[in-house]
Amino acid sequence: MAVPLTVEFSGGLEALFNNERSINLSLESRDGSENSPTITDLVVYLCEKVMMDKRRELFVIDGYHVRPGVLVLINDADWELVGEENYVIQPGDEILFASTLHGG
Amino acid sequence: MSRDDIMGEIARLKKRISELELELENGSGDLDKTSCNNSAVPELDLDEYVRYGRQMLVPEVGKSGQIAIKQTKVLVVGAGGLGCPALLYLSGAGFGTIGIMDHDTVSLSNLPRQTLYSTASIGKLKVDVALDELRSRNANVKYVIHPVAAMHNNIFEIVRQYDIVLDCTDTPMTRYLLGDVTRLLNKPLVSASALRTEAQLVVLNVGADGPCYRCVFPDPPQYVEACSDAGIIGPVVAVAGVLQALEAIKLASGHQAGQEPTMTLLSAIHGRPWRCVRIRGRQKMCMVCGDAPIVSESDITTGKYDYAEFCGGSLDSSQYPDIDSSHSISVRELHLQMKSPHVLLDVRDRTQYEICSLPGSISLPLSDILGSSEGGETALAGVLDNVKSVSVPLFVICRFGNDSRTAVQLLRTRYRLANAFNVMGGLYMWSEHVDRGFPMY
Question: What was the ipTM of the complex prediction?
Fold first, then answer.
């Protein structure tokens, strides 16, 4: 089942996605099943279909794990609160990938 | 001098002494006065009623809040883009003691956003200038300066002297160190950061389930950009610094952050300008405050726990490849070579290229070469064809001569371009040694 969602990038990550800061997607589960897609499905999709930049390591490590230094916020909540990579995406979700900042 | 004159002089001096003693007692002079070690609740001086009146009129502060603020000692680590606005408002709010920690001196590029400093401050220690500035604004506050960098072997003894700490620093290593130390000493930490058009703010170590810095960011970032490279808009970082002062006022006057921990994100230009997002609480697995902590005070002070190692040492220039000296030229050599046919490739990003560039240079950002986006690939292919067909040398230049090393190594290995040369020291050295009129930024 395809689920519509909005993905946003900030803190410099947008540079990896052709400087797009917000994209609307309709996402299906990777295995083609009727199951709703998870965050992992989304990360794989972003890496394979959206990211033109070859420096994948700036976004993910060890396969498709979001690298340290990137906050993942699902509807304005830390993804740790809702299941991290296994969170099942709901229609209309807003998912923000934000680089943590260190300047001061 | 007659006997009467002498007696008169003695009387005048005695009167002056008692006036000064009274002043000292009432604390209206600029000497140390608000020692919070005193168990007695400090009263407000008459001038403080006037000075802080507007703030005290707010019911959420009131007189009790003002006295609580006066009893609070706050430490600001980093007197830069975050620290300056934070310090101004902490001083204005009437904190009893304000510690200012920074080992750096003022430079010209600080002035647009580090608002405690003026042109005359350039070259002076930031803490010295900040002290004078703040004292001239509010001498009721006791200021303590710490002209040192936050290190594993000095930070505990300093943080111990304060009630609240503001992290206004700019490197992950210091942020982790400060995060761990404040957690271990159980001091609230108001942490902020900013870059380009964005800022982030979080209040840590508050409440039983409040997270520490390491709970929120268990793993160090692998790629970090600094304001000196990626840029910063002054008011963006200033807003974050002012918010830090506000959080300190809230903490001191008894308005602890909400029950659930949050992070505030400011995006000044793109998308939603403000977000307040819910973040994780204290983590059971946290190395410092989890159920089985593995980092203690002595691990840190003795250097047994190594922050440089933890942060991966990825932040120094060692991440750039060494280029053989036969593959490098100085800016003076470049100057000579520019009289013969050549290609000069500038690998800075387009924003920097637009600021200033050498005549005849071609712009191709390193990120385009590394990322090989479609446009970057085409542009690079064009340059390579040109260089190979006419067999001229390719000189690669950037701002400081670091990114150009990465580019030259890539061109020589991946693209087998044998006549690619790194311009050592980049445009900075060009400006120093060839053309003093070439702008540096």
Answer: 0.94
